[in-house]
Write a structure and sequence with these properties.
Layout (H helix, E strand, L loop, with lengths): L14 H14 L16 E3 L12 E8 L4 H11 L5 E7 L4 E6 L6 H9 L4 E3 L11 E8 L4 H11 L5 E7 L4 E6 L6 H9 L4 E7 L2 E2 L1 H9 L2 H12 L2 E7 L5 H12 L4 E7 L4 E6 L6 H10 L4 E7 L4 E8 L4 H12 L4 E7 L4 E6 L6 H10 L3 E4 L13 H34 L16
Antiparallel strand pairs: 1-3, 2-4, 2-5, 3-4, 6-8, 6-9, 7-8, 9-10, 11-13, 11-14, 12-13, 15-17, 15-18, 16-17
């Protein structure tokens, strides 16, 4: 927050605000409501607080950044509502500049409260640092790996643009790079790269102001081997569980669940799949357990249940295998799948035509196992232990709901359609006029 005297507002480029006020006071000798001359964007100043209410040497002036304005109606709405708040003397909103100049009484209201007044109206208000206008703006290029679509680009741009010290950001999906303009006194390129990594991407600083700093960044990484090693050891102690989550409809639901679970004690990592309606959670078994995680997600409004629970650094999958005829087929599958890197155990049952495989999810996955079995000449697919637990993947419950809704509507709508068509045909053929159909039972209805 920047607080300064009334005369310092000249440095903001709004001389008409105070000059017009002073000339009006000199000519009329009062402090009635004053309107500044309208500019091209029709912004205005409302000064309707008399001097006895506190306008004087104790007046503070701040410049507030306002996002979300689209027209002059937004400008008038902000000006008319904010000026009514206690301690507000005047406000001048600039639509094109997306900011407002506010005169207020620091003893009555604070700059943060002024921003809250504007936020409550549906706009986004913030207090940009006044001195940042004179600061040197640096540029950096950050290499970003892991982006797959424009949604990733928009996610990074939207998140980083809100960070303190960031003036602008442009992410190139094809080049896998981000171009950021920032204030060096408020944020560093390394901090920006870390913030992008916190979003689930791999990022490192490529250059700053056109100068490659790869060597400097490598040295910084070399000084942290013990930290990364400790983190790797810590990850090995974590256990993993898969959770089935109902009720997710969009990316906002996914983001809400991920943010909520990451705040739970003992939960270190969560990956939510919207289409599969499931989540993979890495947690510290000494602090929490899958039942607590499921209960917390359910309390959030998304019914959840545990699908699978694995030990530290391993996962398990059951497959339905068709085409086996003898023990030789079993041995062939077990020996070939066992050669896949990351496979810890492979057991196949000929009688049930099923196979159970334990593996390291960091090295391989069910898809690789299934492809290996198919290359051997057998047919393999995922098997659900409860027989119906995979129904959600085929949206069977959703299909049943809409099917019931259709049949219910058809039961009542079908007869109505038939009656309507009958009378329409009768009227078209001329056997009955519209007046003859004024009532169902003459004299009654």
């Amino acid at each position: 927050m920047f607080l300064f005297g009334k005369n310092t507002s000249d440095t903001l480029g709004f001389e008409p605000l105070l000059n017009h006020q002073k000339s009006h006071e000199n000519e009329h000798g009062d402090h009635s409501t004053t309107y500044a001359p309208q500019s091209g964007d029709y912004t205005r100043t409302l000064i309707d607080r008399p001097e006895e209410n506190g306008v004087g040497d104790g007046t503070g002036t701040i410049k507030v950044k306002i996002d979300g304005m689209t027209c002059q109606s937004c400008v008038r709405s902000i000006e008319e509502n904010v000026v009514k708040q206690p301690g507000i003397y005047s406000i001048k909103v600039n639509l094109e500049g997306k900011h407002g100049i506010v005169q207020y009484d620091p003893k009555t209201v604070t700059a943060d409260q002024i921003c809250e007044y504007i936020d409550d109206m549906g706009f986004e208000a913030s207090l940009p640092m006044l001195s940042s206008d004179n600061q040197e703006i640096n540029k950096c290029v950050i290499d970003i790996k892991g982006m797959t679509c424009n949604s990733c680009v928009q996610s990074i741009e939207g998140m980083i643009s809100t960070k303190v010290g960031v003036k602008s950001i442009k992410v190139d999906l094809n080049k896998a790079e981000g171009y950021i303009e920032f204030l060096p006194n408020e944020v560093t390129p390394e901090e920006l790269a870390e913030q992008i990594e916190d979003m689930g991407f791999e990022a490192y600083v490529k250059s700053v102001n056109g100068k490659n700093i790869a060597n400097g960044y490598v040295e910084k990484n070399k000084s942290q081997p013990s930290t990364s090693g400790a983190k790797a050891d810590e990850d090995l102690k974590l256990e993993k569980c898969n959770i089935h989550i109902k009720g997710m409809t969009c990316g906002s639901c996914v983001a809400a669940i991920e943010k909520h679970v990451q705040k739970l004690p003992g939960c270190r990592k969560i990956l939510v799949s919207l289409l599969a309606a499931r989540a993979e959670v890495h947690y510290d078994a000494s602090i929490t357990n899958p039942a607590n995680i499921v209960a917390s997600v359910t309390d959030l409004g998304f019914p959840a249940s545990v699908l699978q629970q694995s030990g530290a650094g391993e996962a398990e999958v059951d497959l339905q295998i068709r085409g086996m005829t003898c023990a030789s087929c079993v041995n062939k599958i077990e020996s070939n799948v066992g050669k896949i890197p990351g496979i810890k155990d492979a057991k196949v049952a000929l009688t049930t035509q099923r196979g159970k495989f334990r593996f390291d999810p960091e090295l391989t996955g069910p898809r690789h196992i299934i492809e290996t079995i198919k290359r051997l000449g057998f047919d393999a697919e995922l098997f659900s232990r409860d027989g119906g637990g995979g129904d959600y993947l085929q949206q069977k419950e959703e299909i049943r709901k809409w099917k019931r809704s259709f049949l219910f509507s058809l039961a009542f709508g079908g007869p109505c359609m038939a009656v309507m068509l009958y009378f329409m045909i009768v009227m078209t053929a001329g056997h009955m006029s519209h007046e003859d159909m004024c009532c169902i039972v003459p004299g009654e209805i």
